[in-house]
Amino acid sequence: PATLATYCLMLGDDALVLSQRLGEWCSNAPDLEEDIALSNIALDLLGQARLLLARAAAADPSQVPALPDGSPVPDEDRLAFFRDARQFRNVRLAEVPNGDFAQTVVRILLFSSWRLALLDRLSDPLTRSRDAVLAAVAAKGVKELTYHRDFAGRWFLTLARGTEESRRRLLAGLDELWPYWAELFETHDIERAAALAGVGVDPAGVAADVEAVLDQVLMASGVDRPVLPPVVGGHDDPGHHEHAAHQGRDGVHTEALAELLAEMQVVARAHPRGQW
Amino acid sequence: PATLATYCLMLGDDALVLSQRLGEWCSNAPDLEEDIALSNIALDLLGQARLLLARAAAADPSQVPALPDGSPVPDEDRLAFFRDARQFRNVRLAEVPNGDFAQTVVRILLFSSWRLALLDRLSDPLTRSRDAVLAAVAAKGVKELTYHRDFAGRWFLTLARGTEESRRRLLAGLDELWPYWAELFETHDIERAAALAGVGVDPAGVAADVEAVLDQVLMASGVDRPVLPPVVGGHDDPGHHEHAAHQGRDGVHTEALAELLAEMQVVARAHPRGQW
Amino acid sequence: AELEARFQAVIDRKDRIEPRDWMPDAYRRTLVRQVAQHAHSEIIGMQPEGGWIGRAPSLRRKAILLAKVQDEAGHGLYLYSAAETLGVSRQELTEALISGRQKYSSIFNYPTLSYADMGTIGWLVDGAAICNQVPLCRTSFGPYGRAMIRICKEESFHQRQGYELLTTMMRGTDEQRAMVQESVDRFWWPSLMMFGPPDDESPNTAQSMAWGVKTHTNDELRQRFVDMSVPQAKALGVTLPDPDLVWNEERGAHDFGQPDWAEFWEVVKGNGPCNAQRVAHRKKAWDDGAWVREAALAFAAHDGGTGGA
Amino acid sequence: AELEARFQAVIDRKDRIEPRDWMPDAYRRTLVRQVAQHAHSEIIGMQPEGGWIGRAPSLRRKAILLAKVQDEAGHGLYLYSAAETLGVSRQELTEALISGRQKYSSIFNYPTLSYADMGTIGWLVDGAAICNQVPLCRTSFGPYGRAMIRICKEESFHQRQGYELLTTMMRGTDEQRAMVQESVDRFWWPSLMMFGPPDDESPNTAQSMAWGVKTHTNDELRQRFVDMSVPQAKALGVTLPDPDLVWNEERGAHDFGQPDWAEFWEVVKGNGPCNAQRVAHRKKAWDDGAWVREAALAFAAHDGGTGGA
Fold first, then answer.
1. CB-CB contact of C232 with C123 (8 Å)
2. pLDDT of residue D207
3. Helix (H, G, I), strand (E, B) or coil at D105
4. ipTM exceeds 0.85
5. Cβ–Cβ of B238/C241 closer than 8 Å?
6. HEC profile of B70-87
7. Residues with Cβ < 8 Å from D199, sequence gap 6 or more?
8. What is d(CA A151, CA C256) in angstroms, rounded to the nearest whole number?
9. Model-level pTM?
């Protein structure tokens, strides 16, 4: 149950943190249609996050932060608002600060291609998670992520073939985020254990499929795969001197996450006994 | 003592909030010399804020926010980190988000011209505050603010007469901040009471002097006084239907203050029993 | 003259004018102005709430707020479409907004200073908007009236959600109750201003009513709003900040004080607490998005597609 | 050859070379590279700490941190001035930095993730810097050596302040103690990397030592740093994350593990956690400030002043 809970936190934090980033677009998008679409994606991910955090709390209540006695704050909110950056398990791709619209398109494309593959395995009758709740959440998510990927794929193509300026920006966004791509396919111990227990998916196992999908989009857009290596360093595992690429999963993030959480958590933390 | 305390909070919050804004320039200024100068001004104002908040706490401990029993957080930090935006008494000029360097130059010029006049009265042998602590803090501040005003005055002139671009930006910064200028000279009830008690200064009384100083800078720079009216509205004083221009002093701020405090207070609030 | 008579007949039998029907120029201009102003209000109105999405104190409230602000963008879309049937493009209207030539509801020039404002905006601001807008569902111009029907439905939903947030907060801690009261104190008077100046200072009302663009006077609607809000405030447990507010048995309605109309006119003129900020925000988003809109047009042109989204 | 002999004689008697003295081109190039890299490190080093000024948890710590980062800007100033005596301008050097042609200390490519990092950077990072820099006070090039004397004084002050922050936090709550340990775990290995690769992989060391630009090898300095840090860690009550760290009675020094040199080279190549971010930040500040620098030049030119500040 602790493994299942932590695994759900990982998937839940991915969705929560990216949802927070996409919510920043609200009233800032290039036009109303994109404003609405980005809010939609943010809402879908927020919905997934809520179900996953609730599942984590139910599976292992000991992972839910304690609050003053009698606090009415529900478990999903304790997990979202009362953990520090160090306790968040999301991949770093989700937390990188927003750049321009092109960078957001790239991020949604990379993120949703990967996540769609994970949720697909988690819900497919042949490979379904043994945790029925997680399987159901994943099944709902597959539909949503298919839309997200389509949205991003269409815009990727549009920007790649639109104007020189849009292509330049798209490539810059791709270069900026590419170093965080490899992390998505690194298997964390918890993911390995969850996969062995039949509740989770080993992300390394979906890499080939996801790369193939991405290559299609790149090819259709006439864009080369970046040759940039992944970000390294910063592991804190004593004596463990391999490259520890699964940093976000270990709670080691970029500087941006603490700043994101400072905003996200400010009102909730000011009222640990609040009702909303 | 409650009047003295609230009065010190007003002057202290002005310094604290502007110091926070100027600190944001750190590692972002146009060149190293300006980076150092802006940090210097931020440090001076932070020093003033600390003395003023400490004086406020000593004068009226009931205004200091309560924390869990045994918390080692000192009074100055309780006041700085554990009050909400609604309880901050600074003028809004201090909290407006940073724009470009020109806007910062304008802000320092406006703020320091005004504050210098206040602190000058508070420390001048003829008009000195009856509160010896406040008078001493003011005397120290006069030297600092003279430097701040000089810095801003020289840059105002430089930008006004530098390039077309610098002049355009300077005028835009002036137009942006001008609507917050009138608020500095509105007399709040607390200021009136403090002035009557001989501990504080009525800001309306320094208006003519300050305007004269400002006009000199404007004239030397060939810049016209903006004709923009002050910001109105948003008072919450039931049945009080005059324009309530002293909004910041009443705790009614711009949207930017809560965001500023979210950042400023995040670590302190996460550790109400912390020692630093 | 015959056209004019036929036009007025449609109005008089409370039927709808459709885009291809003949209409007097002044009617068209009035409608463009009103529909555009309404659309702009939806879009600018996203900002005071949108700024709190990132800080919503529970995931449930974050979802509600995100969906609500998204609805406002949707309302803006319908309304710009309605305006387009009158021959003006969204681009033109947006440029009129960010250059300050067209206005939006002044209420959005007041700042949002606490999460309670998310509830108060729903309860009072959306409530006032509904009072203004329900009659507009029967307005004489077809596309506008139909847009309003859809919008009003969603607005009532928002209003209930806002009131529900306040109710929940009032059951919470003392700090939360104080936050609600403080928020209501700030928004009460600006909400009353949403109905526009008193009838005797509202020069366009008569013509608008004759055209069926407007169906009630400002003061009538304001009275309705006050009478509606007083029992709601009581149920909530908050005080409305008007010492003159009292039930008048004789009129069967509440007597109440007047907002500060001098302040109202200052805010309309552009000197409210957030006018400059709101327009600058909109302008920045629009300018920052220019290259995206251009790319979508270029792509549609040379790839024969339909644009990116 | 005579010049070269005279030059080497100055070096050999541990005297200073001054800017107007003759020096070999390779010496000049090496010095420019080293002084510029050092200056860049001070300037880039402002970022990992500067990002926490806004969040410092007490006013006292805010003042300390602000002053410290300001000192780093000051160090950058002295060092750019020293480099200018070798014939390169600050503008050229800054452009070399933001285009990636010149490097800075890799330690600043690691993120700062909690306020404890402000203490750890003082204790370990500034501590390592001091070990590197104290010998440089006697370096052969005069302006560099004199800058280093001033810088080293301030750095020791910063180191004490950092250590004092950690000491204070260790007396605080359990969460604070955990924060300190977590921070030390992250910074220990990168701090050891600050001395550069092992001597047998450090091709430039021999020449630099012959020129008196460098006075100790990387491994010597690293050993000194470890021996200094172990008792400090003990006094603080934290564990250093190296299972191989043990006192070697025979050598009279600590044995310790090697950092991950593959990671080191990756970070040097530009693939560390923050390389792109740090350079982009510097580039943005520099580009955003261009109009100000131009205005100051224009003003000085036509008003005959000395610039704005």
1. yes
2. 77
3. coil
4. yes
5. yes
6. CCCCCHHHHHHHCCCHHH
7. D205, D217, D218, D219
8. 52
9. 0.94
